[in-house]
Amino acid sequence: MTQVLSDSARRDAMAFGEALFARTLDQAPPADRMAWFITDLDDFVAHLNVRARMLFRLCLFVVTWIAPIVGGRMSRLASLSLPDRIEALEALERTPLSLALFGARAIVSLVYYEHPDAAREIGWDRKCLTAVRAEAGEAREEATVTT
Amino acid sequence: MSIVSGAQMTGDLDVDCDVVIVGSGAGGAVMATELALAGKRVIVLEEGKNVPAAEHGAMRQSESLRHVWREGGMTTSLGLFGAPTINVTMGRVVGGSSVVTGGVCFRVPDSILRVWSRDMELADFTPEALDPYYRHVEEAIHVEEVPVSMRSRSTELFAEGAAKLGIPVHPLRRNTKGCNGCGRCNFGCPHSAKMSVDLSYLPRAIEAGATLYTDCLVDRVTMKGNRAIGVEGRLMTGPVGTKKGKLRVRAKRVIVACGGMHSPLLLRASGLGHVGSHIGRNLTLHPGFRVYARFDRPVRGWQGALQSAFVDAFEHDGVTLTSLFVPASVIAATMPYAGPKHAKLAEQVDHIAMFGTMVHDDGGGSIHKNPFGREPISFYQCSPEDHVRMRFGMRKLADCFLAAGAKEVFLPILGSDGLTPDAYRRFDLDRVPSSRFEAASQHPLGTCRMSKYAGDGVVDPWGKVWDTEGLYVTDGSILPSSLGVNPQLTIMMAATRIAWRMRDENFSS
Lengths: 147, 509
Ligand SMILES: Cc1cc2nc3c(=O)[nH]c(=O)nc-3n(C[C@H](O)[C@H](O)[C@H](O)COP(=O)(O)OP(=O)(O)OC[C@H]3O[C@@H](n4cnc5c(N)ncnc54)[C@H](O)[C@@H]3O)c2cc1C
Ligand code: SF4
Known about the structure:
heterodimer; A: mainly alpha; 7 helices; disordered C terminus; B: alpha/beta; 8-stranded mixed β-sheet; 21 strands; binds flavin-adenine dinucleotide
């Protein structure tokens, strides 16, 4: 699959993802995980039609350029320090433009938390009921047909 | 006959048949099967790909959004005049949206049928008259009750709270056979346990001689005067449907079953719909809202049937409460803040339970051609009662979870943090504008609605487009009003009713 997000869009998505998913104020998530995230995000966007791509780019634009302004800084999100980026995103969330943040966050989170380490960090074991019951030694009851 | 991939074909597709069906979802698949079994030469044209069960199992959730859902699940209906902007999801795949359902099956409530049969004068729409069609579909898709043992902990907690408040919770019925509770239903069942139409209907249509062409986008119905004589479109290839060869199918009957958002588009692109026409109007969405609740102990709500229980006690207040669950990644996505504060909340996903409320909306949305692309533009408006219903449903959900001992509830308000029981009691939901609600819909309905008289709708009571010959619509768009319950069973019932009448017709006319 060829790259569909431009280099600058990838940088913006990376800056956004690092701020959103940082677990401490001084450290972004591991670089290899973020690299996986950007590659997979690119593949996600590659499968979107033009309109959905434009919608994502619009949300990312708001996050990249408007979030810093509402956070009190005239700069691109990627140029800010990690704590300033986090502050900018939280400031954006308090404005009517939070819908754009919501849209961008939904897509990047969907991809990011599917990384096994990210899933583990939030306690998402992705186990199904059968596996859990099998571990507990329970048998599955049959569904009752009612029609 | 078989499934043919339009993406793999070289050249154009140019064929004749008795019936061409556009769309292989709940409505289209039923028509294809019933008519093929009656000996008609049937062709089904589907824009999406064929994705077998093994491929569903191999995909992560977000990969399923890329390959199975329309627009990666990002379609929205823009809220007007204070209505929320609603994320409308649909399948774009062989089997249509039925592939991504939670499997929930409801018949239309009698109260709705009374409105259809009395107020809208659709005399045949009584519980007794529709029963044979419903029973036929229920058998074909194996509708069964979800056993209590299949409930997720999330649903159990809700039910515990509801019981304390004296609200009865009933088991849902779903179209499953051998479900193991893996909770992946919305991303395609990897175990072939959900009897979506790609498993329950289309194989029988194909066995009876129908041909299903995938990766085929129909652009217009070919009309000769007021008679439909076929369809035209194009074969597609690649991840976003790049144009390839042309397709032209000549048929004695043309069935449009593209779903509530796309059938009106196709009719309009075919030159139908004068000023004042109902095509693309009367959109209802059953806006849905989730409430999360955080508990002290792990919940792991993804373990168990995605949907297993419901509450109908508030039918007369215009809301149905149903169990649901979304992937942990989606829960995390809806948590507020960024950085460490966000991470702290995201780490709570395994402690989160959730339940949903679906509004039986009066609606008033519309679908319009997008001058810049294939997917329609859609607007949505609420009635004053709809605004009340949304809040009523959210409050009931929060009340039940708090009664079950939740430490915090998260209301579906953009950017809002969790509310402790005390904070929730002080919180004035009426002051939050509906436009700040996070709303989702899986049920676009009514945009080619059925009517007794030509001036009131788009199709007659047998699905035929008013003032045309040979042209029918048989999907969710023909339902006369919002149902207040999940619609797949009713769409399939309505298609069966139309197909049984059509199979006895002489197609030379
Ligand atoms: C996530 C999700 C969960 C759901 N859960 C439930 C549930 O639990 N219970 C329930 O009752 N309902 C549920 N629904 C709703 C249910 O799936 C739909 O109401 C039903 O499938 C609609 O049937 P339809 O025939 O109107 O359209 P669809 O099933 O959407 O079929 C339309 C088909 O037409 C194709 N198409 C569109 N335009 C064209 C064109 N121009 N050319 C060729 N092909 C075209 C589409 O790709 C699609 O495959 C759910 C829906 C979603 C999205
Ligand atoms: S919960 Fe049941 S129906 Fe749903 S995906 Fe798993 S096995 Fe299939």
